[in-house]
Structure formats: structure tokens, C-alpha cells
User: Which sequence fits this backbone?
């Protein structure tokens, strides 16, 4: 996050956006997707365990 902030500050000062900013953004998107999938799969696992216990 600090690296991205540095690139944004540099962009504001120079008007040139470094290409590496897109890698920071891509990384944040992928991590966000991973977090969403973790919670989704955790909920599905809990539901599956509850269904097994009810049998």
C-alpha cells in the first residue's frame, strides 16, 4: 500500500503514472477475490458439516 501511495504522489508531482501501478492494482484485485472466496468457501463448509450432522 505504501508503494502504491508513493507512485500516486509521484504521479501528482510529475504527471507520469508508472506502469507498475497496474501491478499493484491487479494484486489488490486478486487478493480481494481470494478473501471473498475464503469466506464463501468457509460458509459452504459450515453448511456441509451441518447437513452431515443432521443425517
Assistant:
Amino acid at each position: 500500500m505504501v508503494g502504491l501511495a508513493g507512485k500516486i504522489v509521484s504521479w501528482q508531482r510529475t504527471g507520469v503514472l508508472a506502469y507498475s501501478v497496474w501491478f499493484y492494482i491487479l494484486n489488490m484485485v486478486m487478493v480481494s477475490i481470494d478473501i471473498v472466496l475464503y469466506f464463501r468457501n468457509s460458509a459452504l463448509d459450515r453448511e456441509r458439516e451441518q447437513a452431515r450432522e443432521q443425517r
About this structure: The chain has one domain: 2-53. The two ends are 48 Å apart (CA to CA). The mean pLDDT is 92.
